[in-house]
Amino acid sequence: MARALTINGKTQTVNSPDNVPLLWVLRDELNMTGTKFGCGVASCGACTVHIDGEAVRSCQIAVADVWGDITTIEGVGTPDNLAHIQAAWIDHQVAQCGYCQSGQIMQAASLLAQIPTPTDQDIDDAMLGNLCRCGTYPRIRAAIKDAAARIQEA
Amino acid sequence: MASIGKIARRTFLFGAVAVAGGAAFGFYKLTQTPPNPLNPDDGALNPFVVINADGITLIAPRAEMGQGVHTTLPALVAEELDVALADIKVIHGPAAKAYFNQALLGAAFPVTDYKRKPWHDDTAHFLGNAAKFLDLQVTGGSTSTRDGFVKMREAGAAAREMLKDAAAEQLGVKSAELATENGAVIAPDGTRLPYADLAPAATKLKPRNVTLRDPSEWKTLGKSQPRTDMVGKSTGTATFGIDFRAPGMKFATVKMSPKRSSMRSFDPSDAILMDGVEKIIDLGDGFAVVATNTWLAFQAADAVRVEWDDAPYPADTDAQMAKIAEAFDTSPNSTGRNDGDVETASGDTISAEYSVPFLAHATMEPMTTAAKFTGDALEVWSPNQGPMLIRNWCADAVGLDPEQVTVHTMLMGGAFGRRGEVDFAVLAARVAREMPDTPVLVTWSREEDMRHDFYRPAAIARMSGKVQDGQITALDAQVAAPSPSHQAMARWLGREMGGPDAELTAGVADQPYGIPNYRTRGYLADLDVPVGFWRSVGASYGGFFFDGFIDELAHAAGRDPLEVRLELARREHAPSASVIEKVRDMSGWTGQTPAGIGRGIGFTYSFGTPVAQVIEVRDTDAGIKIDKAWIACDPGTALDPSIIHAQMMGGCIFGLSAATNGQITFTDGEVDQWNFPDYDGLRMHNAPEIEVAILENADGISGVGEPGTPPAAPALANALFDLTGQRARRLPLGLDYSLLI
């Protein structure tokens, strides 16, 4: 059935069956491919989006159960209008294959919204659900700290 | 003239080209330059440089799978072409012989890298020409910069001179009077002639011989560059294989036999009625579900009732390991090294058996490929490491000629060797054939990906050595494993391969250590478990066997393990000694650690690059934590320090992930692991802090994608020994140590 979702501030009508996870509505119905499929069981974090500002695994949320406004990586910033966190990611040259980075950025953005100056322990606790097979963790950590500083200054 | 098939039967391919001395192909053909697959009318000055109204496009002939070739290879061109990396576009380019990897076969020239003389390199380069006949447009073996180092700069210089010649003709001056700068030819009076304006005339000119600039003149190379793919990958706008979309496209998945067998029975009657399902295709050894979205295809695939035939290999891990051990009773497949005489060497004998499990690649992006079949043509959008092989095998699968198949290489969400296979693309082509004129994106579930890999082989080593008066006097290594090279070559070239496989003892036979009596033997296990190339291949286990045992011998000799390695390397290869000295200094190595802290050194020379790592572990209430890693490497020439740093860091974490948690086991012919919860990698909280030093003492240039991986496992194992006094001889270490997970 048709339903309305608010995604990145825009209302979109979607028609996928009720039980289809939000991830696949974004990717296969709306062609919003920035949010990635990694495991389908909430163990890698590649599909992380925000619902009402909270980082969630979109592979686990049936489209019928979406309870608020959705933000995806496309809504964080664009190549021409980067968010602070994306600029930090670029300055630290974080990405290798880059596949997990949408999810990493969404998870980190939610951390910074809750804890503006996170400690290493805060970063560990917030980010351990996001897997990166290329091993970019040290640069992610540095980029999160840098993004925190940028947001404070802004 | 012998055919490749005949040579391949006589001896293994990599060696085969050297053994035959290129005679199979003919000297003339070997040195012939393949044609430019790009159209000069579109602005192609050569296969690597296209300049037209859309701007400057550089073709990076290797797959971007995270290792940065879409930055470093264009940087080589840009250095000579005088363009800024920020002003150019980088693409993968088509499947074409012009993009063959000369270094891939050349790197397998049977003289250990660090012992090569210039004439060895020349010969290897010549023999590497054979790759173009074997359609080896392959990304692998840490060869991209080695292959592109001269070739890509020459392409840039040749294009620059053609543009200057065109400008000279237009201005009526001599080419030598012109300069180039930032995408334009500069006339003697200072007028700027943009390359785009000159390109139409330049493409009609003949390229001249060029002289490459001296490294002292480099402006781009040698300095860290912003990666060309970084903005896209930080904004969700980079298009990976799984992100391909086309009008009318369908989403599909496959479920293939987890026992690599045929279907005994197959009943899709419930599944076909499910939401969004459009078609279920019997593929013989599995089936495909075509649907309106990928998740609905996954659900339907799980609802198909299917029974599989038995596996063609021993059904469980114990039986498989027994089969590998049986190989020790056969004649050696290769004797990689035999210095001195290990039998008569004097000293106290120490012996140990080591083993490692099968490993999955587990790329973050599961296997995926899109395809469209139109009866007389097939178009494939595939994240892959070997486009010509993909083209050939997809053509074969749908009954077309290779020329009727177009391959678009997409960005890869990790590869690690997995995407050097062709199975994922061939399956997509087979699905597309049943859906004529409809683009279909076939995506594997994580479970399908984990359970249908070509695994890093399990392997067993029987190590023996002798120590006397504080010296290692002998080392005798025997390694048994199935051969990924033999299997992969059969899958690539369609012919069974035989002969010695140096990969069996990689990381063991080729180490730059002056051990006076040093013998290695590789034994080929007759085991059909699917195995393939996995980041650093044989060195990934050989490094653990060799370096772990060196640590044992050092302790038996009553010596500091780092000092022993340094002493052995100094006798044989100064750049290797230097990386060991470097990590000693970086880590402040004293050979002493306080209670609760353990340190280990690991060293492996692989793919021409020596890498030393010191790893520090700490006992915590939650388990043993890997706190720090210090890494020193020497690729000879450091083209982009930031990318090399990233590869060393990533290679180490990849190795540590496998060493701590990684194992693929079998029960009843099926893989036991399904998804990340039972095949996990290190994560933010248990990955170490890492410091990297890049040295440039070695000659020439070597790769960095793989060499960071092999020393990680032994460095960690040696650190755990230092912490606990318990020697690690099998992986994963999580089986025997209480690690922080």
Report on this structure.
- The complex is a heterodimer of chains A (154) and B (741).
- In chain A, the strands form 2 sheets. A 3-stranded antiparallel beta sheet of chain A has the order 4-3-5.
- Chain A has 2 domains: 3-75, Beta-grasp domain (Ubiquitin-like (UB roll), Roll), CATH 3.10.20.30; 84-153, Orthogonal Bundle (DNA polymerase, domain 1).
- Chain A contains 6 helices and 5 strands; from the N terminus they run E-E-H-E-E-E-H-H-H-H-H.
- With 154 residues, chain A is α+β, with helices and mostly antiparallel strands.
- Helix content of chain A is 38%, strand content 13%.
- Chain A has helices at 22-29, 73-76, 84-91, 101-114, 120-127, 137-153, and strands at 3-7, 10-14, 48-51, 54-57, 70-71.
- The model of chain A has no long low-confidence stretch (mean pLDDT 97).
- Chain B is globular.
- Chain B folds into 3 domains: 33-101 and 137-230, Aldehyde Oxidoreductase, domain 4 (2-Layer Sandwich); 242-310 and 367-443, Aldehyde Oxidoreductase, domain 4 (2-Layer Sandwich), CATH 3.30.365; 459-735, Aldehyde oxidase/xanthine dehydrogenase, molybdopterin binding domain (Aldehyde Oxidoreductase, domain 4, 2-Layer Sandwich), CATH 3.30.365.
- Chain B is of the alpha+beta class and 741 residues long.
- In chain B, helix 4 packs parallel to helix 7.
- In chain B, strands 10-11-8-18-15-16-17 form a 7-stranded mixed beta sheet. A 5-stranded mixed beta sheet of chain B has the order 13-21-20-19-14. A 4-stranded mixed beta sheet of chain B has the order 1-2-3-4.
- Helices cover 31% and strands 22% of the residues of chain B.
- Chain B starts with a helix and ends in a 17-residue tail after the last helix.
- In chain B, a hairpin with a 5-residue loop joins strand 6 (184-186) and strand 7.
- The chains are: A alpha+beta (154), B alpha+beta (741).
- Chains A and B meet through helix 1, helix 2, helix 3, helix 4 and helix 5 of A and helix 9, helix 10 and helix 19 of B.
